[in-house]
Design goal:
mainly alpha
């Protein structure tokens, strides 16, 4: 009987420890960045392409279109209809970035920060220039 009580008490302690340590959940909420001022130029070459190069080009075009590699990305997203100049809400690229499932998948296990998504949105709003 003592052996059974010892086993039960050990199991209870282990269960309690596991439940206390494994149920901790801390959600990190990234703040929405402020609007980019009108007088600040958002450049494709210096602001947008570096995002694509660092976070997107390893899978695009090898796994899926569009081709986001240096020298190809602008023509790919414009000519293939991923961007509607001046309208991020009608742009497939922007809509994909803000979709919850896409944020979990692109880039894999490391979604783009809101500040980078905001740069892309602002660039589209301002005409998606090849600058």
């Amino acid at each position: 009987m003592k052996k059974i009580l010892k086993l039960v008490s050990k199991a209870a302690v282990i269960t309690l420890m596991l439940s206390l340590s494994s149920c901790y959940y801390d959600e990190i909420v990234e703040e929405i960045p402020p609007e980019i001022p009108e007088d600040v130029v958002v450049s494709f070459e210096t602001d947008i392409q570096p995002i694509f190069t660092a976070s997107c080009a390893s899978c695009h075009p090898t796994i899926a279109p569009p081709d986001l590699t240096v020298g190809n990305s602008y023509n790919s997203i414009i000519n293939d209809g991923y961007i509607v100049k001046g309208d991020p809400d009608a742009s497939i690229l922007y809509q994909t970035l803000i979709t919850t499932n896409a944020q979990e998948l692109m880039p894999p296990n490391n979604p783009l920060p809101n500040s980078e998504i905001n740069k892309i949105k602002t660039w589209i709003e301002r005409g998606a220039l090849d600058n």
